[in-house]
Write a structure and sequence with these properties.
Blueprint (H helix, E strand, L loop, with lengths): L13 E7 L4 E9 L5 E2 L2 E4 L4 H21 L5 E8 L7 H13 L5 E2 L8 H8 L16 H20 L8 E5 L4 H12 L3 E5 L3 H11 L2 E2 L12 E4 L18 E2 L11 H8 L3 E2 L2 H4 L2 H6 L9 H25 L3 H23 L1
Parallel strand pairs: 3-5, 3-6, 4-5, 7-8, 7-10, 8-9, 10-11, 11-12
Antiparallel strand pairs: 1-2, 2-5
Helix pairs in contact: 1-11, 2-3, 4-5, 4-10, 10-11
The protein binds nicotinamide-adenine-dinucleotide.
Length: about 350
């Protein structure tokens, strides 16, 4: 397994491999960049096939957090951690305490929070060993409503650009993962804005009830790509824009909450070729991380959060302007702007040192 030569290494500042024989902890903490502040990103626990798979996952996620945080203009860097879920029975409390000690060893370069497979209670256990955790119970709470608000603003921008519509009334929007934490709040915003909704979720009773409540059309989870809608909002899984789905899309824009919507970077160009506008996921789904800032300092209050969500809207407009004028896919332009901003922050930091 290569590390420095890994295709997703992307100049990471630090990668910590933490091994604790007593508790069975095998974790990787990746700090992509601290140029603009301490790295923040959640901890994911997953049954990885091997450490190579875990490393690939953490490096990609960590780079993504750097890009998301800098595009939201937060005083943060980007990082992420993964725990290789031990096979069989294990002491979860002891495991997360050991994980806390691993975070602590980085002395505040990296703050962790929950992600897939990790609960706020797990993070509380890590908290016994380190102050460098956020998203605890009693803190800023569920980030999903704020994420949904940001995605809603992103969809407004997409509708303006792709459809020439200054409001969403009558705009046909297909939401995948409609009853999820983010999806459900997003559906409420879209419904209030008068959108004509098409909803899909694997949770059939919940999505039927939601569709009935908001007067939406219920769509089979496997048919959501085929809907004759204006906008597709993926709010469930990653990699949903892929070679099997792209030719089924009838929409003019894709804008949703899910992380890593494009299966490959090239899918951005494929969307562009088909005249489908793409709102890069990490630009419009940053509401949750914006909200979590309140755990670091009370000055990042609800008013500050609202202001930041507006910045997110203007950042998306900047990405789309540049994509149009340079004739490049929006995801490629967003990555480029993120890298430019990180390089600028690194230069400033070096000058100040
Ligand atoms: P969630 O698990 O609450 O919601 C996902 C929803 O998708 C569930 O209702 C699930 O039933 C549904 N689903 C799963 N597979 C599906 C399929 N094949 N077809 C249709 N529906 C399916 O998760 P969430 O917190 O709402 O997050 C949704 C997405 O947004 C994830 O990709 C997540 O990484 C991303 N995201 C979330 C936040 C946040 O604040 N929660 C922030 C940034 C990004």
């Amino acid at each position: 397994m290569s590390v420095f030569e890994h295709k997703s290494f992307d100049n990471h500042e630090k990668v910590l491999f933490a091994n604790d024989e007593k508790t069975g902890l095998k974790a990787i903490i990746a700090v992509h960049s601290t140029a603009n502040g301490p790295a923040i990103g959640g901890c994911r626990m997953w049954s990885y096939a091997d450490s190579a798979e875990a490393l690939t996952d953490v490096l990609r996620l960590s780079q993504g957090m750097s890009y998301k945080n800098i595009m939201a203009d937060l005083p943060l860097g980007g990082g992420k951690s993964v725990i290789m879920k031990p096979a069989g029975e294990f002491d979860r409390t002891a495991l997360f305490e050991a994980f806390g000690r691993a975070i602590d060893a980085l002395g505040g370069l990296y703050y962790s929070a929950e992600d897939v497979g990790v609960s706020p209670a797990d993070i509380l256990n890590a908290r016994r060993e380190t102050p460098y955790v956020v998203g605890l119970p009693g803190g800023t709470g569920d980030p999903s409503p704020v994420t949904a608000k940001g995605v809603f603003l992103g969809i407004q921008v997409a509708a303006e650009r792709a459809l020439g519509k200054s409001d969403l009334s009558g705009v046909k929007i297909a939401v995948q993962g409609a009853t999820g934490h983010v999806g459900a709040y997003l559906v409420d915003h879209l419904h209030k804005a008068g959108a004509d909704l098409f909803l899909a979720d694997i949770n059939e009773p919940a999505v039927s009830e939601l569709a009935r409540r908001v007067g939406a059309t219920l769509v089979d989870k496997d048919r959501i790509y085929d809907v004759e809608a204006d906008i597709f909002a993926p709010c469930a899984l990653g990699s949903v824009i892929n070679e099997n789905t792209i030719d089924r899309l009838k929409v003019k824009a894709v804008a949703g909450a899910a992380n890593n919507q494009l299966a490959t970077r090239e899918m951005g160009a494929e969307l562009q070729k088909r005249g489908i506008l793409y709102a890069p996921d990490y630009v419009i789904n940053a509401g949750g991380i914006i909200n979590i800032m309140g755990d670091l300092d009370p000055k990042f209050d609800a008013r500050w959060v609202e202001g930041k969500l507006k910045v997110l809207k203007s950042t998306l407009a900047e990405v789309m302007d540049r994509a149009e004028s340079e004739g490049k896919p929006a995801n490629v332009v967003a990555d480029k702007i993120a890298r430019e901003r990180i390089a600028e922050a690194a230069e400033k930091k070096a000058k100040a040192a």
